[in-house]
Every structure is written in structure tokens, then in C-alpha cells.
Amino acid sequence: MGESMEFKIEGLSKTIGEKKILSGLNLLLKEGDVLALRGSNGSGKTTFLRIIAGVDKDYEGKIEFEQGLTLGYVPQDIVLFESLSVKDNLKTFCNGNNAKENFTRLENYAKELNLLGLFKKKVNKLSGGQKRLVNFLVGIASNPKIILLDEVIVGMDEDTVNKVIKLINVIKADKIMIITSHQDEFMREVCNITGRLTDGKLELGYEN
């Protein structure tokens, strides 16, 4: 058997103007770990995820993971094509050599999330919570090993949140995930590690 997948951050710092947003952060996550990233508004959670995702390249420090591993980022902003149907959005994001296999997998996820009935509907006709679900699926369209979820359940009702919890708990075993949310119960249901950003520092704890 090969070694377990690892994701490592060393000395990660980020400054905006005169303000130090992140200050010398260190983090080691292994396959199956799901980190609940907490912190007040403006504490740097989204900045942290954007740096890991490669969206923000202006930082100091090192981010290391095995070459060839794919990364999926689900931002707070909706990244869907509003004029396309749900199905066409999913197909658009399922590209590359494994497009057909990945689309079949997303169809199965959509079934678990009660989205199949919306496949022909245009995104601009969906509710906010429904858009969040589709946004979640396109973010994991490539079957990434590292998944970043930024406030993914905003606008969802309790039943839908429970379906997302169930799906995350199914897929997380061979992945590494970092999740931000203001809903503590959601975090407790899916995460085994907690992290809190305060004054640019990351303090870790372990749930189980």
C-alpha cells in the first residue's frame, strides 16, 4: 500500500496594505481529514482558501501536496452559467479525459441531493439554495482529492443541509477537506479537526 496523502502548509503569511491577515500559519492534514475553519468575519478564512486554491498568489510561505492531485474550490460566489440548464452546467465543468465518468458520478450525487428533477431548468430560475447545491457539485466535478468549501450551505433549508452532510460523509474518506461555515452543527457532523483564525494565527483542535 502507498503512503497516505498529505497536505502541508508552512509559514503562510498574507498582508493587505498595513494589515497582516495571516501570520506564519502551519498546517498538516492527511487523507480523510476534514478541517472546520472558524473565525469571525474578516478573520481571513476566505483569503486562506483563495490562497490554497491558487486564486490569490500574493503570499509568503509554502503549500505542498503530492504532484498530480486535483483541488476543488467551492467559493461563496456562485460561479455557474445562469443562462444554461443545471445539466449543461454540470457537463461544462466535467471536462478532460474522465468527463463521462465524472458526469455519471455527479448525476449520482444529484440524485442524493434531490436535484435530478431540476436538470432541465435554467440556473437563473433556481432558488438561492438550489444554486448553492449546483455550485457545490461543479466545484467537485473533477473528483478532486483536496476540497475547499467556503460557506457552501448558505441559503439551504435544514433538509437540504442534512443531505449535504450525508454526501460529504460518503465522499470524505479518501479526500482532504477544509470547510468554512457559521453553522456549528453542520461542522460537527462532517469535521474531525477544528481550526480557528484569530489575529492572523491558526489554533487547531481535534474533535475525534
UniProtKB/TrEMBL annotation:
PROSITE patterns: ABC_TRANSPORTER_1, ABC_TRANSPORTER_2
InterPro entries for this protein: AAA+_ATPase, ABC_transporter-like_ATP-bd, ABC_transporter-like_CS, P-loop_NTPase
Gene Ontology MF terms: ATP binding; ATP hydrolysis activity
Keyword set, alphabetical order: ATP-binding, Nucleotide-binding
Coiled coil: none
Organism ancestry: Bacteria, Bacillati, Bacillota, Clostridia, Lachnospirales
ABC transporter domain location: 7-208
Protein name: ABC transporter, ATP-binding protein
Domain of life: Bacteria
